[in-house]
């Protein structure tokens, strides 16, 4: 038996229960991992509240972790006892002392990286990788707009896009967040509570607007985001902290815009894609191109 956080009913933080669970031994194609550090994500809150539906109730939340391999399924090769590995995305269940994982879903962690840093960045960082490298390939000369630029993904987006040669405009809500975005290298920061971001983007770009908008806010920003795009621009809607955006076909028609709602699982379908995504992330962190802020650490129990 191991201890894990379990959710028996949907609701606030009070529904999180610390309990003993039986996880068994790994089957063919699986490994057992003792977690060293577990990442926290907004998606965990969505599952706890029922915005996203868990496959079963009760369930153990959590979508990313770093741990040590303690057992291998029958016949499994390519890994060994004691390997440090990480995963992000499915299967859910990282809020636990130990867990069973599909071997094909984990990636090796460089020994030079702190497990706490990796746990804090792997889900958000791999998300950033596919957003700037594959969903829309950011290149020198592009001008991009990043909403929630001081959030974890927003911060990584700004840093990575700047390293790729783009001009980055970020939106934030407070002076403190504006300072952080500037510290990340954001070229121009808009405090959206004090000024209209559509008007400011139009002024900043002299009416040319931007090549791509990365929008994790959703309902509150989607119409303004579309207005900020140049003809044939890309709207990348990868979150909805303010609610799901509504149907937008007519808005897209106005400028032949592209709209996508990407997800990490669809950009890591193969083992090769997964390793490439994680490899680029770890290289960025190791080289210092990406700075990871660990804003807090908490005991699991």
UniProtKB/TrEMBL annotation:
Pfam families: ADH_N (PF08240), ADH_zinc_N (PF00107). GO terms for molecular function: oxidoreductase activity. Residues 11-300 form the Enoyl reductase (ER) domain. Keywords: NADP, Oxidoreductase. SUPFAM superfamilies: GroES-like, NAD(P)-binding Rossmann-fold domains. This is Probable quinone oxidoreductase.
């Amino acid at each position: 038996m191991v201890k894990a956080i379990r959710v028996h009913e949907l609701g606030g933080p009070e529904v999180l229960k610390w309990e003993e669970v039986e996880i068994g031994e790994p089957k063919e194609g699986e490994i057992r991992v003792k977690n060293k550090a577990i990442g926290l994500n907004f998606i965990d809150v969505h599952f706890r509240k029922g915005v996203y539906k868990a496959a079963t109730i009760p369930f153990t939340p959590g979508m990313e972790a770093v741990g040590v391999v303690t057992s291998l399924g029958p016949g499994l090769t390519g890994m060994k006892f004691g390997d440090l590995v990480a995963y992000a995305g499915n299967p859910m269940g990282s809020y636990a002392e130990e867990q069973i994982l599909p071997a094909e879903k984990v990636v090796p962690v460089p020994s030079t990286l702190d497990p706490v840093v990796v746990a804090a960045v792997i889900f958000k960082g791999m998300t950033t990788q596919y957003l700037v490298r594959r969903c829309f390939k950011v290149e020198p000369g592009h001008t991009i707009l990043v909403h929630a630029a001081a959030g974890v993904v927003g911060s990584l987006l700004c840093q990575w896009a700047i390293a790729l040669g783009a001009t980055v405009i970020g939106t934030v809500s407070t002076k403190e967040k504006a300072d952080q975005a500037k510290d990340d290298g954001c070229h121009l920061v808009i405090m959206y509570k004090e000024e209209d971001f559509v008007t400011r983007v139009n002024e900043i770009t002299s009416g040319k607007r931007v090549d791509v908008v990365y929008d994790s806010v959703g309902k509150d920003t989607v119409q303004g985001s579309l207005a900020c795009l140049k003809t044939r621009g890309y709207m990348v809607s990868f979150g909805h902290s303010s609610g799901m955006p509504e149907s937008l076909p007519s808005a897209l028609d106005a400028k032949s815009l592209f709209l996508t709602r990407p997800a990490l699982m669809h950009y890591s379908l193969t083992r090769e894609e997964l390793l490439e995504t994680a490899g680029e992330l770890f290289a960025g962190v190791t080289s210092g191109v990406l700075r990871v802020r660990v804003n807090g650490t908490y005991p699991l129990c």
